[in-house]
Amino acid sequence: MLKVLLTSQDISAGIDQLAAEITAHYAEKDLTIIGVMTGSIILLSDLIRRLDRRMRVGLIQARSYQGENTTAGHLQVNADMLPEVEGTHVLLLDDIFDSGQTLSELVNRFQKLGATSVRTAVLLRKDRPRDVTLTADHVVFDIGNHFVVGYGLDYNDEYRNLPHIAILPTQDFPS
Length: 175
Ligand code: 5GP
Ligand code: MG
What we know:
This protein is an alpha/beta fold. The chain has helices at residues 8-26, 41-48, 101-112, and strands at 3-6, 31-37, 56-64, 75-78, 89-97, 117-126, 138-143, 148-149, 165-167. It is globular. It binds guanosine-5'-monophosphate (5GP) and magnesium ion (MG). Magnesium ion binds next to strand 5.
């Protein structure tokens, strides 16, 4: 059984707030929002429709290598869908800030690509210790150290279509 952690109403109100923060921070700046695939797709589509301004949108796919811990340098990145970001302000958008390795590594990559600034926004941030120095610039919800699914987040590519965020109980993981 899945326990609902955040309802679709909670999420909607949170994204209104995130959109207001982004609008205030970037004002007239040349903004490119990059969604980290696949978990951020629903968040990306809901967020960008709340931003009434000129901006570019792109996607990057990042995942840690199968069977490896998420440690620095172990990220598989597909940048084929990336627009030109040199000289623009990049906002990386991801579903969840867990170990922080994914966004730390992506921030480095975008700095090397010549972005004028690189900042990060996440829907969820887990309460756990981290090795990385990066902190997410925009966090919609702080949650406990649970494994969550829904609203884009998956378990074995299932559950992404749930309109809410739910906790996947440990007994539902294969032992
Ligand atoms: P990181 O550990 O690098 O901060 O997060 C890596 C990725 O792990 C996230 O983008 C997300 O795809 C996945 N992840 C981390 N925690 C969870 C979780 O609780 N549920 C799901 N579905 N994915 C997670
Ligand atoms: Mg992800």
